[in-house]
UniProtKB/TrEMBL annotation, chain B:
One of its GO terms (molecular function) is ATP binding. Residues 5-245 form the ABC transporter domain. PROSITE patterns: ABC_TRANSPORTER_1 (PS00211), ABC_TRANSPORTER_2 (PS50893). This is Sugar ABC transporter ATP-binding protein. It comes from the Bacteria. Keywords: ATP-binding, Nucleotide-binding. InterPro entries: AAA+_ATPase (IPR003593), ABC_carbohydrate_import_ATPase (IPR050107), ABC_transporter-like_ATP-bd (IPR003439), ABC_transporter-like_CS (IPR017871), P-loop_NTPase (IPR027417).
Amino acid sequence: MADKNGTSLLRSLFNAWSWLFLILILGFFEIYAQTQTGSTFLFRIYNLQSISVAASQILLLALGLTLVIVAGHIDLSIAFSTGFAAVIMAMIIRAAGPDAGWLIVLLAMGAGILAAAMVGLVNGWLVALLNVPSFIGTLGTYGIARGVALIAAGGATVSIRNDHARAFGNGTILGLPIPLVTAAILALACHYLLKHTRFGVHTYALGANRASVERAGVDVKKHLILLFLLSAITAGIGGLIYTSRFSAGAANAGEPILLYAVAAVFIGGASLTGGQGTITGTVIGAFIIAVIQFGLVFCGLPPYWQFVAVGLVIIVAVLVDQSKDRIVGGRS
Amino acid sequence: MSALLKIDGLKKRFGGNEAVSNVSFEVNAGECVVLAGDNGAGKSTVIKMISGVYQPTAGKVWMNGELLTGKTPEAVRSAGIETIYQDLALADNLDPGLNLYLGRERTRKVLGLPFLDRKTMREDAVEVMKSLGITVPDPTAPVREMSGGQRQAIAIARAIHWQAGLVIMDEPTAALGVPEQREVMALIERLKKKGVGIILISHNLPDIFAASDRIIVLARGIVAGERRPAETNDEEIVRMMMGATL
């Protein structure tokens, strides 16, 4: 009995490690700020806003991706679903001229999401109906979406001048940046979908054992198509925010974030073999990366150190996951 | 008394190869019939023709007098025949309740939105398992943490929870240790007491004699013989499996 309690305590510690890690790095940067510069890291609105906006950008790529990874697949094309949506939105607003009103901006956003959704449909078709491994299939659409977006944009960044779009990307609601609010709403929706619906259960079961859901009468092909569609659409929304924030649509808008999005999902407790992972975990993972990104620059290190640091955290996350399986998981 | 399941003259040809030539038998409610036979005797093919996975080249299957031949696997399941495969088809990362209800999960409305009713599904799982004589140590833990016998019980619970009249089990003890094999044998006894008919596929002789009310031996696609366990012995069964028709 004592042994059993010990195991469950260990299990909760392992499950909470990403929380502990986030608190640890926040504490580290706060101590650094207090002792080295006599200022504060945590208690300054500017810092918190910068971190939360960076985390939101990562999250918009990582949320749909979490469900795809839980189902035992991967979606590499999200980086360019983001870019595709960003370019399409920018091109329409640009064509409409600087006086384009709210309606045109909303229409352009809708078109951007549709463009991203097309990438998702192609992914779903490849993986679900043609049985192409998702790593290869989405690597292919990664290239195609990148090429099409670059061709459409003429190889350049499509800059726009539109106050409505800029307000969407840089404004606040109740003092919170709109990108953060958007990411928070989508995170809640994805959390509900994964944790509380039948669709979510089927996603977990699909990641653990495809035969279990197939024999339970679930339409696995349709399920997979919906997952890739969801992943492309959340990434596409990331593209809309990019265009609005920077008043420019770039085909490679999502490219630097892809690694971070994948990392956030795995730091959050997902497993490459599927069947594991949560939206809460992914949110913490995104914040860990955003804090490292901002914190290292805050400490005066060249920004390139963030790649090294995030790479190390990914490896630590995998090691923690493995030792968890060895110590408390597995069959008795 | 009419039989629960009746199969008549089943035949299955794959190209030029006849896997099953002529198989007929019946299963009554509360009875365990063992299909015995060597590898390649046609056991799995017969099972797949019953469960609707294969359509027979000739012959018919009835359940409670309803003709099943030509129906889809889903239709056969809703007619009350559940097949438990060797791999059990469990989702190891989910708890027993979700495995019990997989594909037919229960939800309740909160503010108009459907939420999974995990608690009710868990309670139902504990209840069904209890009726099979199995205590679930922790109903919130994923089923991968359970023993082989308990996992088998979840697969069986899933079958009977949906009112299966007939359960087909494919080598249920193949991957289990000795204590767990005994657990499964006890499960089969309890299923019989509930009036469920069972077809058990096995080539493990102790299992065959322990569980069965009748033994049907298949050899090279035909019924090589049918015996009650009390009327026969290991030696005769093996001889029939080897193809010496008596």
